[in-house]
Amino acid sequence: MHISRITLVNYRNFSSADVRLTQGVNTIVGENGSGKTNLFRAVRLLLDENLVGRNHALNEIDFHRGLGDWRGHWIAVNIEFSDISKDESMQALFMHRTADDDSPVERATYGFLFRPTREIRDQLAQLADGDMAGLQAIRQTISLDDYETVIMGRGTADLTDLDTYRRIVGDFDSVIFSRDENGHAPDFPELGVSVPRYFSLAKEFSFSYIAALRDVVRDFQINRNNPLRVLLNAKSEEIPPGDFDSIVAQVEVLNSAIESRNDVTEIRDEIRSTFKQTVGETYSPTSLSIKSELPLEATRLFQSLKLYVGEHGETYEGGLNELSLGGANLVFLTLKLLEFQYRSARKAIANFLIIEEPEAHIHTHVQKTLFERVEYRNTQIIYSTHSTHISEVSQIERVNVLAKSGTGWQAYQPSHDLDPQEIKGAQRFLDAIRCNLLFARSVMLVEGDAEEILVPSLIKQVYGVSIDELGLSLINVRSTGFKTLANLFDEKRIQKYCAIVTDLDAVFFDTTADDSDNDVTAARKKRALGSSLTGAQRKRDLDEYAAHNPFVQPYYARHTFEVDFALASEQNRNLLLSTVDEIYVQEASRKKLRTALLSKEPSKFGLASLKMAEKLGKGWFALMFVGFLTPAATVPNYILEALGFSVRSLPTETWARILQYRLDYWMSLDALTSEATDAITSTIVRFQIEEIDLSEANNLIQGVHEDLQLDSIVKAFALWQSSTNH
What we know:
There is one protein chain. The chain is of the alpha/beta class and 726 residues long. Helices cover 44% and strands 14% of the residues. The strands form three sheets. Strands 2-1-4-5-6-7 form a six-stranded antiparallel sheet. A six-stranded mixed sheet has the order 8-9-10-3-11-12, with helices on both faces. Strands 14-13-15-16 form a four-stranded parallel sheet, sandwiched between helices. A hairpin with a 2-residue loop joins strand 1 and strand 2 (14-20).
């Protein structure tokens, strides 16, 4: 048996989330603040004996903030179990409590609703459709005291579906609430049957939760958090009566020996004497002694034991506070895993182990080894992580990605509805690129080393911000087989925007065969013609592939990256010109390249830039050329358009930094008068305080000082500024 699905509605940062899980090991990935801990807490509310019951009374902060006014809305958490054993005890447990019907149980649900009481629900049902004033009046009276928690089984309603939520809970925007023939809130059988409070699946399962490793040394000092104490307690309960008698007798002798020492009795006598001298005989204690309190019970003796550990390769053993952070974390994690084994050994009907962010302070190799080796029979394990090293060894069909959607966060399954061959291909790519695209807010796929190296550097040099600050992962697929990775981005899978950047390889010089051509020239012409045909076909394929997918869009260099970079501006050709001496040794070759780059003919300077890249190899040329980039460079438009599509929108603060960066660059060139500088500075301030929008700010700046780079990036983002899915 395993958890196959977890749904959350209006819980903390989740407006509506649908997590799909499989047997065995599962991974939840997401950036900081994506809700990994909230998801686990929701599960624990139902399955963790340490939380069940006392934490079912939720608070205002548990409602999704995107609701605005939470009053009247419901919080729903639902867990679905699959592959339930046909064992008689297992069937008996679910048949009457959480299964769909009276047939043998294969699937069952268990969840809770935090909702207004019947009285409040009836008041809402009696509102006339569209009566906003009436709704507001009722809401003003609602407090948390008007809410109830109901544990449910046999539920079939999917409240993550907006239409279902509006039908059962209500449409608060339009003020439409369902009512029965008597004008009351109806009972919806699809919500399931109420499960008595005394019944708890948590009592039937072996469930362990290992929290994120923050300060394990402190946790060892708190008894309830100390995993060693839990293990010792469990073992002490197994000690047969009388088995500790000989040890207890020795402890009694030791206590007596300590108490009877001369130095101990001297201190006792001196305390007595000081009492009499201070307060007199009348107020002094009648008796006073100093006793050794080494424990005499087996349990307390066990609990007094401490753990000493030596770092790998060392013979010295010290306390936990003497270990490195990583070493202490590994010890703590190991003990928690052993604690889980103790619990699961009681042969519960199902075993669940949740491990939150195990990567803290742990070496990358240890992270991967830990993930691959922690696996227990008949146990479902769910990790959360933002480590690319753990996600690298995760299979994508076992991964859920938590990502921002509007004002809330949702869970996406990257392999959903892909065929096995597509999954296998994507997994190979993810293994190679360490899965960082699973954590990105937006993605750009490029075909080669030149784009991978130069595009991030271009953005940083020209606009003063890194692609990491923009939330963009740039992935080099090292081929033109983009579909394998682009398949992950879809309405059914990861709803993040993915731009494909590739070359059309269109011919930019005369390829007409000539009898005077030498072998090298003839081969270049033939290769160029073949590449142009392939590029045209690639465009047809990618355009057709992306036509019905709003999350994927291809963008094309007309020729190749190097050629289109040279075509973009005279400044770019000047930057290429500055590298000639680094590439060529012979002066004749240098002169020939300089002449070509200074030419006004695209066929000449385009071919020159391509030859320079091929001379060193495109990757090595890109590495060298990075050192020659300056803010004077021009980012080719197709790259800016791809950036705008994938990133969609930027915070006001980021745009202000870009504007200020360009202003500082112009000022460094003495390109502005003091009046122009003041005007642009004023425009940036007005934009920061939202007195004007980005488009107006850009127009004002262009009116003072025309800068194609600033204008180009603003226009590239303009189509997507209204999007909130960033």
